[in-house]
Amino acid sequence: MTGGALARVIGRPPAGPAGEADRCDLCAAPAEVGHRHLYDTERAEALCACRACALLFARDAAGQGHYLLIPQRRVRLAPLPADGLGVPVGLAFFVARADGGVTAHYPSPAGATQWEVAPENWSAAVARCPRLRTLVPEVEALLVNTARGRQDHWITPVDDCFRLVALVRREWRGLSGGDRIWPAVERFFTDLAE
Questions:
Q1: Going edge to edge, which strands form the sheet with 75-76?
Q2: Average pLDDT in the 63-77 region?
Q3: For residues 192 and 74, is the Cβ–Cβ distance under 8 A?
Q4: Long-range contact pairs involving 40-47 (C-beta distance under 8 Å, separation at least 24)
Q5: In the chain, domain spans
Q6: The whole model's pTM is what?
Q7: Which residue from 154, 147, 158 is spatially nearest to 68, judged by alpha carbons?
Q8: Cβ of 122: how many Cβ atoms within 10 Å?
Q9: DSSP sequence for 36-97
Q10: CA 54 and chain centroid, separation
Q11: pLDDT, tens digit, 9 for 90 and up, residues 91-144
Q12: Cβ–Cβ contacts within 10 Å for residue 109, how many?
């Protein structure tokens, strides 16, 4: 994510005149409220896109370029056991890659920590939840929250996951997260449901 895009996700205004509208990270045109995002596979970041750039890349259904339009679907899943996926914490997301591998990420105060999911473990998860076969590589994720007794499992756009990483970075205090982090995470998942 570019510095300006990350600042917008975190909720702090980017450098520049106060009240300045979001801009397309590709052509610098104004990006309307609720604009779409593109995933830059070369830099592994989400970019803001104006309507014209979003339409241009929406036509690339084969995903041949290095910019991929991030879908907008959010699908709540029945809880599935994530222990076989190697999740060391209760909050993580899993992104299928175009090469068939799966990368797991968990938000932390330092950003997203990541590791590779063993192929046989991902295959077992897909066998338990066949909807995971529908994940669009690189731009959709399985988002899991089993922290503090929750059972939230979602297919979400990766930009939602990036927003969660930014939220954890912004709200985390001290060694254990402080008293602001978990209410903020719960609001995030409540907003997904709405």
A1: 75-76, 152-157, 140-145, 91-96, 102-108, 111-116
A2: 86
A3: yes
A4: 40/66, 40/67, 41/66, 41/67, 41/68, 41/98, 41/138, 42/66, 45/1, 45/2, 45/5, 46/1, 46/5, 46/9, 46/70, 46/158, 46/159, 46/162, 47/1, 47/2, 47/5
A5: 3-69, 75-193
A6: 0.83
A7: 158
A8: 21
A9: EEEEETTTTEEEEE-HHHHHHHHT-TT--SSEEEPP---EE------GGGT-SSSEEEEEE-
A10: 18
A11: 999 999 989 999 999 998 888 889 999 999 999 999 999 999 999 999 999 999
A12: 14
| H-helix or E-strand spanning residue 170 | helix 158-171
Take residue 162 and report the two structure tokens written for it: 């990036």
- Tell me how far apart the alpha carbons of residues 7 and 187 are, in angstroms, rounded to a whole number: 20
Residue whose structure tokens are 């930009």: 159
Please give the Cα distance from 97 to 81 (Å, whole number): 21
**Which tokens belong to 140?**
């959709």
pLDDT at 141: 97
- Structure token pair of residue 175: 């060694």
Letter for the amino acid at 133?
R
Closest CA to 112 of 8, 6, 16: 6
Residue 39 has pLDDT above 60, yes or no: yes
